[in-house]
Structures are given as C-alpha cells and as structure tokens.
From TrEMBL, chain A:
Protein's name according to its UniProt entry: ABC transporter permease
Claim: Cell membrane is one of the keywords in the record: yes
PROSITE patterns in the cross-refs: ABC_TM1
Lineage: Bacteria, Bacillati, Bacillota, Bacilli, Bacillales
Residues covered by the ABC transmembrane type-1 domain: 66-272
Organism: Paenibacillus profundus
From TrEMBL, chain B:
Organism listed in the record: Paenibacillus profundus
Membrane topology of the entry: Multi-pass membrane protein
Stored PANTHER family: INNER MEMBRANE ABC TRANSPORTER PERMEASE PROTEIN YDCV (PTHR43357:SF4)
Name of this protein: ABC transporter permease
Bilayer-crossing regions: 12-36, 67-92, 104-126, 132-151, 191-214, 234-255
Domain ABC transmembrane type-1: 67-255
Length: 287, 272
C-alpha cells in the first residue's frame, strides 16, 4: 500500500472514531452483554443456562402473548395493505406535484410523537369519544361500541402509525412501471380488472413484499400503542418485556424476552421471504 | 388509464386516498380544538372556549421541567449526532476506506434493531457501568439512535459532490480546512442541517428508548405525557400535546422547505 493510500485510511479512521465509539459502546457491547445475561446465571457471569428460554416455552401464558403479538401484527399488515395499496395507486397516477402533496400529508404526522397521535385516537375512539357520541346522537346505536382498550384499538393505532411505510413502498414500485405497458394492454383490449391483475399487481409485488416485512417487524416491536390503546388486557411481547424489566426487575427473563422478540420477528420474516421466493421459483420454472 | 391529473378527483381511489389521509391527520386535528374546552371533560367537539388548560400546565411542574429537559436533551443529542455522523459520512465518501460497505452497514445498524431492544440492552449495560438513570446515559442513547439518520442524509448530500473541485482548490494553494469550509460545506449544508433537525425530532419524540433510561429527575416530555395518560385523561394532555404539535410542525415545515420530506425517508427508518 502506498503512503498516500495509507494516509487516507488513517484519515478515514480518525473521522470514524466518534461514531464507532457510540455504536460499539451504546449498541454492540450492550447487545452482547444482554445476550450473556439471558444465557448465564448470576447476571451474566455464572454457569451457562437455557432456563429463561425454557421458562418461556413451557408457560402457556407466554406462548399466548407471543401468538397475540404475531396475530395483531398480521392484522395490522392486512389493514395497511388494504388501505395503503389504493393510496399508492392513486399517487402513481397523479402529477408529481400531487404526489409530493400526499407524501407530505401522510409523512408529517409521522414526525410527531406516537404518544400524542395515540392520545388523539383515545379522544376519537373512547366510550364517550367522537365516534360513539356521533353514532349515539344519530340513534344508530344505543350503547357505545367498544373501539378502544381491546385488540381492535391496537390494530387501529398501529395501522395509523405504520401505513406510511406500506404506501411509500408500494408507490415506489408503481412509479417504476412503464406506462406503455398499460397502453399496450389497453390496445390489446384488456379490461380494467385484467390490467390490474396482469400488470399492476404483479409488478408491485416487490413493493408489497418490502412494505409487508417492514410493517410486520415494526408492529411486532411496538410498545407505546399497545400500552396506550390496548389497556391492561392486551399484553404483547414488548409490554411484558417492559413489565419484567421495570416492575418485576427480572432482568434475565427481560433480556431473554428481548431476544425472543427479535428472533421470532427475524424468523417469521425469513420464513415469509422463503415462501415468496419458492413461489416465484415455481412460477418461473413450471410455466 | 395513466392520464395524469393535478386536481383531486372523485374516483374510488381518490376517495380511499382522502379517507386514509384524513385517518392519519385526524388524531392531530382533533387534539388542538379539544384543548380549548371550558369544561373538565375531554370531548370532541369541545364545549365553550377557554385557555384554562394552558394555564393549568404551569401548576404541574413535572410538565414544565420535562419540557425544558427534553429540549436540552434533544438539542445536545442533535448537535453531537450531527457532528459525529457528518464526520463518518465524509470519511466513507471521501476516503473510501477498505470495507466501506461493511462500515456503512455498521453505522446504520441501530436502525435495524427495534428501539425497545436498544433500550433494554442499554439499561442492562449502563447499570453495569454506572450510567443507568444518568443524563449522560440518556444522551448517549439518543445520540446512537440519531447518528444513522445523519449518516444517511449526509451521504445522500455528498453523492453528487465532485472532488475535482477540492483538488482544484488544493492546487491553487488553499488549506484543506479552508477547502472544506468554502467548497465542500456549502454543497452539503442542506443535508447536514436536515440531519440535525431530523435528529432533534428523533430525540424529542422518543419514548421507547427513554422508557428504560429515565429517572425521576431526568424525565422527558413524551415520557411525562405517557405516564400521566396512564392515570388520568383530562384536557391537560390536550393542551400539552398541542404545544408539542405546534413545535413539531415548525420543524416539519423547515425540513420540507430545506430538504423535502419525501427525500428524507428512505426505504427503512423507524421510530417506535
């Protein structure tokens, strides 16, 4: 290596040192330390043990919590897809100016604390909230609908905060679709439904895939929304991890729960990826 | 089918888009009028008009104190994260050290792990080294979650920068610092500035990491609201939230003007 090249490497390292210190000291080392605490006795220094993980899988309560977390995340993905896909289609057909405007409108609430957005939902959805009041006044219902402090409330809250990822992921893939494809399909006499199923949908699959994995991962680890909009009855993995850490002070179990949450999310995303790939593989090689 | 339209059109797609946009902004639209109620009931539409719930904020020192605390924390975290992140981005882009790809992935890695897990691991580790519950610990963790955004934004800002300009300046005898100040900095200034504003908002809004690292004397405003909300729901939450919304809106408009929100969000970013 020439002297000049060596100098460049040293200069780069020097500039990288402050960020490296932060990443290693506040992220990499703490993660390794947490792993130690979850698999060794006496706060990470004693004998190796899988007790915390065994405890989790042998207790039906924890299995139910994990399943509830997965289920709510899947409902959220579905809601984001059903509501977000048409928005992405609308954006793909709009002028750049209109696209920018819609992007701004759905992105800007995202930069305001989730605590505040959830509070707004409480005002809208509670028993004497905006929706129930309106419906009662109109005489459409005679007792308030239960829209909050249950699983429905959590899915509404999560969909509100995560739909932006689905919209942008799908819209990005639709922007790339060559407009002449639609013209060709039109000339060949394809109906609107046929165009959607033969052109739009297949070409937006990468966007749907990206949006789905992103929304799912974020929903799995959401803490604030289940805590504020789910009440005490909707316990999900992040909420019980918090309780074990901060109320029960069971740090070994808290650390194990953190890894189980991370592991189950990554595992399910990998499984989904595999599923999609296998399907694509079959499509390509069997037709 | 692909005819572009500038005006909003009342098609089925347009209706759904309108509904979704309404859904994401309505929680915020409803909070502000609710805060001006003259009654003690949290209700939309509100009854009467008064500023009493704004005046009552001052009766609750925990909100006033945590507001100033959050502001101090977010400004410090943003300034330090911007400095560190900008240096790292320059190192990667200008010197292209061996393993740039891996270094870049490492710098962005805190974004790939849920912030809840970052919070738990930081609590465990900080307890071991004596930083749990301290301002330093909280600040360090907020710097960590902001640095990746700064790195990404500054790298994007640098992507079109032409280093022949720097070389030309050097040939003409300019000192490297002078070159950086007069040539490089003006080009990436919008990206650096946006990174700083984004880092500020990341810290100012954060709950999931702070949750594990605050102590009674170091509580952030979102945490104070979160805790208060679990016990009582009064219009007081609405008045405090309205102030936070106003403050965030100012920053959002600055970001939109300087950089553009759509450019700010890549395919991966999360704040929960």
């Amino acid at each position: 290596m020439s002297k000049l090249a060596r100098n460049k490497v040293w200069a780069a390292l020097l500039l990288l040192v402050p960020s490296f210190i932060i990443i290693f000291g506040v992220f990499v080392l703490p993660m390794l330390y947490m792993l130690m605490i979850s698999v060794r006795e006496d706060g990470g220094t004693g004998a190796w043990t899988a007790a915390q993980y065994k405890l989790f899988f042998q207790d039906p309560y924890y299995i139910e919590v994990l399943w509830r977390t997965v289920r709510l995340s899947l409902w959220t993905v579905l809601a984001c897809l059903i509501l977000g896909y048409p928005v992405a289609m609308y954006m793909a057909r709009a002028t750049p100016k209109m696209r920018g405007f819609i992007t701004f409108l759905i992105l800007s609430p995202h930069l305001i604390s989730v605590v505040i957005r959830n509070f707004g939902w409480v005002v809208i959805l509670s028993d004497n909230g905006f929706i129930n009041n309106t419906l009662l006044k109109l005489g459409l219902i005679d007792k308030p609908l239960r829209l909050l402090y249950n699983e429905l409330g959590v899915v509404i809250g999560l969909t509100d905060s995560l739909i932006v990822y689905m919209v942008l992921a799908v819209a990005t893939s639709l922007y790339a679709v060559d407009a002449s494809l639609y013209k060709a399909a039109g000339i060949l006499g394809a109906s609107k439904a046929r165009m959607f199923f033969s052109v739009t949908l297949p070409l937006s699959m990468p966007g749907i895939f990206a949006g789905t994995t992103l929304v799912f991962s974020l929903a799995m680890s959401a803490f604030v929304t289940p805590a504020l909009m789910g009440g005490t009855s909707v316990k999900v993995m992040p909420v019980i991890a918090y309780e074990k850490m901060m109320a029960a002070y069971d740090w070994s179990l808290g650390a194990a729960l953190a890894f189980l949450l991370l592991g189950s999310t990554l595992g399910l995303v990998a499984f989904f990826t595999k599923l999609v790939e296998t399907k694509r593989h079959k499509e390509v090689f069997s037709s | 089918m692909m005819r572009e339209s500038g005006r909003f059109r009342l098609t089925p797609l347009g209706l759904i888009t309108f509904f979704v946009v309404l859904m994401v902004i309505s929680p915020l639209l409803i909070i502000v009028p609710t805060s001006f109620t003259s009654t003690g009931v949290l209700r939309f539409p509100p009854e009467g008009f008064s500023l009493q719930w704004y005046i009552k904020i001052f009766d609750r020192p925990e909100f006033v104190d945590s507001f100033w605390f959050s502001l101090k924390l977010a400004v410090l975290a943003a300034v330090i994260a911007t400095l560190f992140g900008t240096l790292a981005a320059l190192a990667l882009h200008k010197y292209r050290p061996p393993g740039s790809g891996a270094i870049n992935a490492l710098l962005l890695s805190p974004l790939t792990v849920p912030s809840l897990i970052i919070g738990i691991s930081a609590l465990l580790f900080f307890t071991r080294i004596g930083l749990a519950g301290t301002f330093t610990g909280l600040l360090l963790s907020h710097i960590l979650i902001s640095v990746p955004y700064v790195v990404r934004l500054v790298l994007t800002g640098l992507s079109s920068f032409d280093y022949t300009l720097e070389r030309a300046a050097a040939i003409l005898g300019a000192h490297p610092i002078r070159t950086f100040w007069d040539i490089t900095l003006p080009v990436i200034r919008p990206a650096i500035f946006s990174g700083m504003v984004f880092a500020f908002l990341t810290s100012f809004d954060n709950v999931t990491v702070s949750l594990f690292l605050i102590s009674p004397s170091t509580t952030t405003l979102p945490m104070a609201i979160f805790n208060y909300m679990q016990e009582s729901l009064t219009p007081l939450v609405a008045s405090i939230s309205s102030i936070m919304i106003l403050l965030s809106l100012i920053f959002i408009f600055i970001l939109e003007r300087v950089y553009g929100l759509d450019r700010l969000f890549g395919s991966n970013s999360h704040s929960h």
